Amino acid sequence: MAKPWIKYALLIGTAFATFVFFFTKPAMPQELSYHLFVDQRMFWNIPNTLDVLSNLAFLIVGILGLRESCKINSPVKNSWIAFFVSILLVAPGSAFYHWAPNNYTLIWDRLPMSTGFMALYVIMLAEHISFKFTKLLPWALLMGLVSVLVWVATDDLRFYFWVQFSSFLTVPIILLAFTSRYTHKGWFGVTLLFYGLAKWTEVKDKEVFIWTHELMSGHTLKHILAAIGLMGVWWMLKVRSEAASVRTHSV
């Protein structure tokens, strides 16, 4: 078994390495070509219909998760509520963006995503290392918001990308190196898998549109896959219990 300091060094080192990776690069402005999604069809007078309506999946999982979060009797309760409120808000934020894709509407897509990432990161730290990390929730949410606002003010995505990718890369380390206080933690891995698939289909927007014979684009599929992954987190929260290794110890 790895010594405790090695686990923490790996965690901190990965976050630092991603920081160096992004901030040794030139400023990264938002490419306007990002807004040119392949499926621009309109049905029922809704522009970019499928990219807009597929966000209903986030609304559903946000509501389900929020209901389950309110039942929790744990110091992590507020972090779970913040996470699923963020997911719920992704639905209108992303729908607003896809209705008329541009840098301004993209702000409202990224704001709830950034707070969702940070709330989940606090949850991972609190449930795998120490409940004391829940005290960082307000600061973590603020950091997520600031990462978006820095991009808005400077048209530089480096800080925003670092916040997202450092958390995405360190979450597997937390899952593998630390023991959770709760059962069914494998669902976090399922969520990461679907998130990775969602990011891949986002990149392959046009190719997925062709492969599906124009049934749906990669970006529409991204929304669906991401929501399915989040449903795994909701289900985990619903069925899990305190792990046997900590049942005899006080919180």
Automatic annotation (TrEMBL):
Keywords of this entry: Membrane, Transmembrane, Transmembrane helix
Membrane-spanning residues: 45-66, 78-99, 111-129, 136-153, 159-178, 185-201, 221-237
Keyword Repressor in record: no
Domain of life from the UniProt record: Bacteria
Protein name: Ceramidase
Taxonomic source organism: Peredibacter starrii
